[in-house]
Amino acid sequence: MQNIRNPISQRVMKISPSGIRRFFDLVSSIEDVISLGVGEPDFVTPWHISEAGIYAIEKGHTAYTSNYGLLELRQELSRHLKSRYSLDYDPNSELMITVGVSEALDLALRAILDPGDEVLSAEPTYVSYMPCTILTGADFVPVPTTVENEFKVQAAEIEKRVSGRTKAILLGYPNNPTGAVMDRAGLEQIAEIAQRHDLMVISDEIYDRLVYGVEHTCFASLPEMKERTIYLGGFSKSYAMTGWRVGYAAAPAELIEAMLKIHQYTMLCAPVMGQMAALEALREGEDAVKEMVMEYDRRRRVIVKGLNEIGLACFEPKGAFYAFPSVKSYGLSSDEFTERLLVEQRVLAVPGSTFGECGEGHIRCCYALSLPAIEEALERMRRFVRTL
Amino acid sequence: MKEILEILEKDARLSAEQIATMTGVPVSEVKEAITKAERDRTILKYKTVINWEKLGQEQVWALIEVRVQPQRDVGFDAIAERIYRFPEARSVYLVSGAFDLAVLVTARTMQEIASFVAQKLAPLESVLGTVTHFLLKRYKEDGEILEGEEKARRLPLTL
After folding, report:
1. What is the pTM of this model?
2. Nearest CA of chain A to the CA of B52: how many Å?
3. Are strands A166-171 and A347-348 parallel, antiparallel or unpaired?
4. What is the CATH number of domain A48-284?
5. With CB atoms 3.0 to 4.6 Å apart as the test, which of A4, A182, A209, B118 could cross-link to A238 if both were Cys?
6. Beta-carbon separation of B7 and A298 below 8 A
7. In this structure, which topology does domain B52-136 adopt according to CATH?
8. Which CATH architecture has domain A10-45+287-386?
9. Are the beta carbons of A133 and A114 closer than 8 angstroms?
10. pLDDT tens across A51-97, in order?
11. Hey, which residues 5-24 in chain B have their CB within 8 Å of chain A?
12. How many Cβ atoms from other residues are within 10 Å of residue A337's Cβ?
């Protein structure tokens, strides 16, 4: 490579490599690690959903689908969004099926951003928001959130950062990594800012079904927000279907048309067997969702109580499957804390700094694992903390 | 109450304290609910699901179809009781269809089961006939898959 001049694009150079790569190497060299570092359900896809995927293959459904995705799936999705959030999306022009919500996010950003535009988004931030923004040539402007506000992004903090270049607000609630959920009033204030400054909103609601004791408010369902919102969702978290790679975007036809341009030249379509499985999930998966949510809720209570008892102050996360306790009182950075925890007690958590400066002083603990494993992890963490 | 029982049904070894944390219900209420359920036999017993084949233990099971003549006033209940009192009968169900009682029987050898059927079950008054199916392989027991189930493989670290 030495002879080639500037082989890597400036935009890619601007993206910093993930700081946690070294954990991959570390964790593979240690046996019997309990990992709280996962970002997906521990449940296997409910069998009737997997079976629908298998059946699709058996029946010979192995070809491309429409770029938009299977019409049947879009129709079912349209009904689903109508009944859950009273949203009206035309399955023919306002919905598209993507390769996971990750692709939908990338498409949304690329469809609306030009170099020099700015995107406002809360920090701690999901790891792909900033890189995907930078790849479009736009700038990512983090809006700090704090544990005092349970990591809900404050409208006033957003407003302070609105500039002439601001194009969009990117929301991700229920939140990875903090587990925060926005309440309706908070979202309405953001809606008002979007309206007043004529901003677009991309709302990544992949964790919409995983909320505990509170209701999820769909941003696009707020008055007058549908027209300026790109609503992103998927099947991965609610139905334990991460590996199937099926997500979707809902937005006004003009925006979907723009996203579809990119999608048709890059992905063509999401895998058809995954789409068939997703169709079954929407039609018959409700009981399984409820059961999994109930199970996560139990684990959530156990881990939050356990972390607080150990001395890792943890606010009550109301969504997703992450707890985000503070490790500030131990005088270690979140990086040092997680590395030593892994080496000394074989528990893997994710340092909060991975999610931006505001995450420093916290660690992300996923509780999508069995109760005995959670309890064992808590016990090991208790032993670790005692040595500090 | 229902949630506490659902949790216990999956794992009978959880303590009242653990269940209290999981549900957000005070420990005293959890304890009270469990005691009440034990007293009124909503909770019948706590047991362990064991894969005896791991020990190489010979244990033979058979599902026996029993056709019976129902009796006046007591219907199938009296004959069912005559059968379920035998310790060999591990489960007894009244079923619809081609036969009346489904009896799950266990013993150490096939011979023992054969003689149970021939000497105890078949001769009972009002038993019209039996068909014995020996269990050849167990795939799933009480909701648990016995073997061949792979642990879901997740990457230890994803963001």
Report:
1. 0.91
2. 24
3. unpaired
4. 3.40.640.10
5. A209
6. yes
7. Alpha-Beta Plaits (3.30.70)
8. Alpha-Beta Complex (3.90)
9. no
10. 999 999 999 999 999 999 999 999 999 999 999 999 999 999 999 99
11. 7, 11, 18, 21-24
12. 24
